[in-house]
Amino acid sequence: xxxxxxxxCAGGPAPGINTVISTVAKIFLKENYKVxxxxxxxxxxxxxxxxxxxxxxxxxxxxxxxxxGSTLIMSRFKPKPSDFKTDFFIKNNVKLLVTIGGxxxxxxxxxxxxxxxxxxxxxxxxxxxxxIDNDLPLPGRNPTFGFHSAKDEGVKIGNTMYEDARxxxxxxxxxxMGRTAGHLAFGIGTACHFPMIIIPEMxxxxxxxxxxxxxxxxxxxxxxHIQGIYYGVIIIxxxxxxxxxxxxxxxxxxxxxxxxxxxxxxxxxxKANFFNILLHEKLKTLNFPVKSRPNDVGYELRxxxxxxxxxxxxxxxxxxxxxxxxxxxxxxxxxxxxxxxIAPIYLSDHEDENGKxxxxxxxxxxxxxxxCFRNLDYITKEDYKAAVSLLVQPEQYDFYxxxxxx
Length: 406
Known about the structure:
The chain is elongated, with a radius of gyration of 24 Å. By secondary structure, it is of the alpha/beta class. The strands form two sheets. It has a seven-stranded mixed beta sheet, with helices on both faces. Strands 7-8-6-9 form a four-stranded parallel beta sheet, sandwiched between helices. It folds into two domains: 4-146 and 306-349, Rossmann fold (3-Layer(aba) Sandwich); 152-300 and 376-403, Phosphofructokinase domain (Rossmann fold), CATH 3.40.50.460. It has 16 helices and eleven strands. α1 links the parallel β1 (4-9) and β2 (34-38).
């Protein structure tokens, strides 16, 4: 019976998924493997016989390699051990399962291959890590695929927003994706010359609070006002929002919907609108009227066409899947270093005592971070005299005091 390779995609989209799928399909088709794409991730993999399967030929693979989105429908379904089945693998003589997703997808694949081995099926698994958040611990701090394309799209939006702010002499509050790390917000903010960038990693000396975040916003608005500049864009990573304590969120006065356990459903809230409302309230108490508007940037980034960097990287990763499989590797992630060398990464080398992979954060000690944050616009001691006409206690809006970086 013809040997098969199965491909599934899980989690959220990232530019370059189709490039990986296309490359894997083309290279294994050359070796007379059947290449099967399974829709709906693990949910589709363990569905009944009528689950949607896409059998690839060269022409379909060749049409999709430069497209955004995913030709395979994605799902965040996480199977329980009782969901595992052997039917699909036996029926199709699958020899390799290629999973595209985050660390949770990879962990599930490890559990699945162990189950299959216990059932007498020796099926290899190579995982291709993807996330636009750039928070996976790849060696040499190499970027995750999709990050640069998402950042590039975010920069286009950010530049347009900055032009709008300048044209209308107003302020825009921009929220970007990044649940645990601020790579996207930092990359977009520095590329667009935004006067203030707020990411969770900034709060390395003091816990984040709503008051501190709003004071950082006021700090940059007042600093620019002193300079005779009456516009700007403030970008904030959604990760800051998710690091706030539940008490902080509740006392903000913003109305939330709540889940079955009584916790605020953060995914239903516009982060930019949340902070923009609170900024307006703060500026009102300071008798300092400033026009500002919110804008969330998230889903616009995930399915854009991959730029050249990710087209090359994802092609290399797809070839790397084949290379590692031929070397007999399994239960690993494929990675490529800055010089293009392919190597396996094992999750067990990056898991903490609870089996969780620690996210890669923006390195606040790196020179790029220190220089960029040093050159944002905000109140410092040198501005107290000029700011006192606008702020009763300008030292409370001192960037270094707020973050306790002194």
